[in-house]
Design goal:
By secondary structure, the protein is an all-alpha fold. The protein has a domain of 45 residues. The protein is 59% helix and 0% strand. It has 5 helices and no strands. Helix 4 runs antiparallel to helix 5. The radius of gyration is 35 Å and the shape is elongated.
Amino acid sequence: MIRYDEGRVLFFATALFVAAMSPLDLDQMVREGRISMAKSASADGRKAVRERTTPPARDPKIAVQEEYEIARQQGTVQALELFIARHPDDPLAAKARADLRLLSR
């Protein structure tokens, strides 16, 4: 036989009864100010400004230049060939080809 603490049973039964008998009217609670909205919608037709979650894109020219500098610092045929393969039409590819010719000597 399971024995229950009568005080706990009475408390939970009362809480359950009160919760069942008083349904929440959220609209009324908002109107009365008991609940506040964190952000309200713009009713005048303005577009909401979206918060930026990602940083802006980098300048591609700077990224290519940094990649060229890294290839030069490595000073290997493989690094320069990889740079040329990735950026064949970039003006720095001509420099990389010249660096590659100097390494081949």
